[in-house]
């Protein structure tokens, strides 16, 4: 309830701000964790995640992301969105592990509902989505990129991308898996999901997790030129085609959302899974020291 009220407030405040800035010509709105700029080619917004240090998708970040998308969807002048990160070297570290560790079942259920919500909005968006992957992109970070229509990645071998859930002792949900299969094919997905592979850029390109690699300083200009090409296609035919390609995958979650929340909640609440997450978080800490 409290979150729903916060969401309404944010949406309202955001739309007032958005309107005022549009009049000034600035065309920019921001929540704390998501910045949206609509300068550049007509009809294109750049959405930047800014939840330092690693753009983990906390409940607040998910909510702000979903609200920003909703606002862009409602703005009929926007046809395309470039999704990128403001955190140096990190696109997104994926779902926030602290939302899935040491909390209660009601929290897990609320969190998962919001993860589903963002995925459904992003995956089924009528807008053209291009990701400018300017850093590491594990698990939920990869999920965000996979929702896009085209993925441009910085060719920096330090950055990796993939669904690495099995390395954490957890399992990618069926809809993450479905989207992976749709993108890289059954055999590659089967192998990568079991091994929790994090692909460096050259391998990500080879297997089809990303569509194009460019030097790091060219990621944004390339994303813009890709967007220009997609903008040249009439919206109605592109949107109907996208819907035809993606609807079955989205419907598969829509028809069992509640069961999926229950599954997640009972899975993540297990002592053995909490122990695995604890160990993984410890490993992240030790890496530093
Ligand atoms: C039957 C099945 C039914 C249902 C399904 C059930 C379960 C499936 C559920 C969910 C799917 C999960 C999806 C996910 O996205 S899980 C998250 C996966 N993410 C990762 O594995 C990334 C982990 N992070 C890293 O590898 C590195 O941090 C990274 C390469 C991103 C950046 O490295 P860097 O050296 O720059 O920073 P660090 O020092 O490592 O991190 C800084 C700081 O941030 C914390 N951190 C990192 N990642 C996360 C995260 N995902 N969530 C929360 N916090 C994170 C890290 O611990 C450091 O914290 P601190 O020590 O306090 O500074």
From TrEMBL:
Lineage top rank: taxon: Eukaryota
GO cellular component assignments: mitochondrial matrix
Pathway the protein takes part in: Lipid metabolism; fatty acid beta-oxidation
Reactions catalysed: a (3E)-enoyl-CoA = a 4-saturated (2E)-enoyl-CoA; (3Z)-decenoyl-CoA = (2E)-decenoyl-CoA; (3Z)-octenoyl-CoA = (2E)-octenoyl-CoA; (3Z)-dodecenoyl-CoA = (2E)-dodecenoyl-CoA
Principal place of residence: mitochondrion
Function: Key enzyme of fatty acid beta-oxidation. Able to isomerize both 3-cis (3Z) and 3-trans (3E) double bonds into the 2-trans (2E) form in a range of enoyl-CoA species, with a preference for (3Z)-enoyl-CoAs over (3E)-enoyl-CoAs. The catalytic efficiency of this enzyme is not affected by the fatty acyl chain length.
Protein name as catalogued: Enoyl-CoA delta isomerase 1, mitochondrial
Organism, as annotated: Mus spicilegus
Lineage: Eukaryota, Metazoa, Chordata, Craniata, Vertebrata
């Amino acid at each position: 309830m409290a979150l729903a009220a916060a969401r309404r407030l944010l949406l309202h405040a955001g739309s007032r701000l958005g309107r005022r800035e549009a009049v000034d010509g600035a065309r920019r709105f921001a929540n704390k964790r998501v910045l949206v700029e609509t300068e550049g080619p007509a009809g294109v917004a750049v959405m930047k995640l800014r939840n330092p240090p690693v753009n983990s998708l906390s409940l607040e970040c998910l909510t702000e992301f979903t609200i920003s998308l909703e606002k862009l969807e409602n703005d009929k002048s926007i046809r395309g969105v470039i999704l990128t990160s403001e955190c140096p070297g990190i696109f997104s570290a994926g779902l926030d592990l602290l939302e899935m560790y040491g909390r209660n079942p009601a929290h897990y259920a609320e969190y998962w509902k919001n993860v589903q919500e963002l995925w459904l909005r992003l995956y089924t968006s009528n807008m053209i989505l291009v990701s400018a992957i300017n850093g590491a992109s594990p698990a939920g970070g990869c999920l965000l990129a996979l929702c896009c229509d085209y993925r441009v990645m910085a060719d920096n071998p330090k950055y990796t991308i993939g669904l690495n859930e099995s390395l954490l002792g957890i399992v990618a949900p069926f809809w993450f898996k479905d989207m992976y299969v749709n993108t890289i094919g059954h055999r590659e997905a089967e192998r990568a999901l079991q091994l929790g592979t994090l692909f460096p850029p050259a391998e990500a390109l080879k297997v089809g997790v990303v569509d194009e690699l460019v030097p790091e300083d060219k990621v944004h200009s390339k994303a813009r030129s890709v967007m220009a090409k997609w903008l040249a296609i009439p919206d109605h035919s592109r949107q109907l085609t996208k819907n035809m390609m993606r609807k079955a995958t989205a419907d598969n979650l829509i028809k069992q959302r509640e069961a999926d929340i229950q599954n997640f909640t009972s899975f993540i609440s297990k002592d053995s899974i909490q122990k695995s997450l604890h160990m993984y978080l410890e490993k992240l800490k030790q890496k530093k020291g």
